[in-house]
Amino acid sequence: MNLESLLHDRLAPAFAAVAGTPVDPAVRSSPHADLQSGAALALAGRLHRPPREIAADVAATADLTGIAEVTVSGPGFLNLTVADDWIAAALDAIAGDPRLGVPPVTDPKRIVIDYSSPNLAKEMHVGHLRSTIIGDSLARLLDWQGHDVHRVNHIGDWGTPFGMLLEHLAEAADGTGHSLADLTAFYRAARVRFDTDDDFRTRARLRVVALQNGDGPTRELWRRLVAQSEKAFLGVYDRLGVTLGPEHFAGESTYQDELAGIAAELAEKGLLTESDGALCAFPAGFTGRDGAPLPLIVRKADGGFGYAATDLAALRHRVSDLGADELLYVVGSPQRIHFRMVFAVARAAGWLPETVSAEHIGFGSILGADGKMLKTRAGDTVRLSGLLDEADSRATDPALGIAAIKYADLSGDRRGDYVFDWDRMLASTGNTGPYLQFAYARICSISRRAEGAPGPIRITEPAERALALALMGFEPALTAAAGPREPHRIATYLYELASTFSRFYERCRVIDAEPETRSSRLALCELTARTLHTGMFLLGVEALDQI
């Protein structure tokens, strides 16, 4: 239940009656009351009246009976104090709703969300963490809101590097080289040979041609590479508790047969220009540092197709075949120009109609204590599986370690960088994943030990009131997170809710309170637990009944 929206709707007719025109009541939280409206101040100049007079007229006109008391303060603010009985009745209604008072969206969309996207034959590293968990949280949230969410894991499984990998795999099958058991070692060994052995490099390039031409043995080797890599990816997803499965894999190879047609259609529409032998699109408004138009290379000079062509093919497929209303790409911020150019070219080609939105969900980097990109002591990129192993070893329960990693990432604005700090992330106090897990487990313990059942909610103490108002903030938090695609707004809300519950429990006896008070407070406890559980689920953080 969105209290802010309710009071907005009650005040809007009163402001319109006083001003003679529609007015946004601008209802906001305030330290001076539960909520506050400062709209009268903005009207003073237009109406040529003191803002306190305008506010007084609005207060006298507004229909807030039984909901809130309104008073005029300062230069013309309307302070709104919600009635305790109304709060209690509203919470009883929320407690009886499986969705905690949050209705499904009235205009569900078909949303295709592209996230994680590792490359075959290379282990996932810490750079894949953010895309994977930010994307998964957004997919969970949009799904829960009632949208038709289609997850896509756009795997890098094609192109020139695969000739190197496949040739090395072919020779490994004959008893030489590394096997696929260790993908990292396999990739490094293949790269060393490619960089140092001219004969191997030649064979690798021929292997690319064989792959592209559908050579049977080469395709079989490629399928082995795909299967082993996807198995490794799924193992990481299972440990992270994300909702990506094998059905969501969509490799670049999916679109290979369409790339020539993509280039031909763009050329027919006059959207491609030859530049140094390559076919490029030059969407308006994109320039390099030298001021020259910035190219989007669709077909390379050697006749091959780059990932711009693949992204265009994937976009066209998602709109025309999957029927997407919205496209979300959860990819690091450095790729923002690339995606803006892809979207511009797709719109010019008619593949991305105005009725369909496309959005790049960018994010910052994970930094080490030195403020630089997180690396191992040897200077290598941190393997994601190694990071999860470290979480297991440091936490008393693996679920705590995974929660610490995921929540640390999701609790800050996705656009910013953050420093990876084990001590802070695993703390059971402060704004951390384990803190939420301990808060939830504590409430579960209270419910197990208390006698009697939850009953109607009564508001008799300030700490009860504060918790009740915090519980009513769940729907606004989800709305605020979904619109701008900002999971940290859910994390912030959950931390504030858990902190408010902690203060409530310190000041209000529950287990040994008299029966009527105990049943009311048990209802507050149960509703807090359900809200925490749902919010943590939307972040992908496991809620533990006991720790």
Write the layout of secondary structure elements.
Elements: H1 3-19, E1 27-30, E2 33-37, H2 39-47, H3 51-61, E3 68-73, E4 77-82, H4 84-95, E5 110-114, H5 129-145, E6 148-152, H6 161-172, H7 183-196, H8 198-212, H9 216-240, H10 259-268, E7 273-275, E8 278-281, E9 296-299, H11 307-320, E10 326-330, H12 336-349, E11 357-361, E12 366-367, H13 384-394, H14 398-410, E13 418-419, H15 422-425, H16 433-449, H17 462-471, H18 474-482, H19 488-507, H20 515-539
Parallel strand pairs: 5-6, 5-10, 10-11, 12-13
Antiparallel strand pairs: 1-2, 2-4, 3-4, 7-8, 8-9
Helix pairs in contact: 1-3, 2-3, 4-17, 4-20, 6-7, 6-8, 6-9, 7-8, 11-12, 13-14, 16-19, 16-20, 17-19, 17-20, 18-19, 19-20
Structure write-up:
The protein is α/β, with parallel strands linked by helices. Helices cover about 50% and strands about 10% of the residues. It contains 20 helices and 13 strands. It has helices at about 5-20, 40-45, 50-60, 85-95, 130-145, 160-170, 185-195, 200-210, 215-240, 260-270, 305-320, 335-350, 385-395, 400-410, 420-425, 435-450, 460-470, 475-480, 490-505, 515-540; strands at about 25-30, 35, 70-75, 75-80, 110-115, 150, 275, 280, 295-300, 325-330, 355-360, 365, 420. It has a 4-stranded antiparallel β-sheet. A 4-stranded parallel β-sheet has the order 6-5-10-11, with helices on both faces. The longest helix has 25 residues, at about 215-240. The mean pLDDT is about 95. Monomer. It is found in: Cytoplasm. InterPro entries: aa-tRNA-synth_I_CS, Arg-tRNA-ligase, Arg-tRNA-synth_N, Arg-tRNA-synth_N_sf, ArgRS_core, DALR_anticod-bd, Rossmann-like_a/b/a_fold, tRNAsynth_Ia_anticodon-bd.
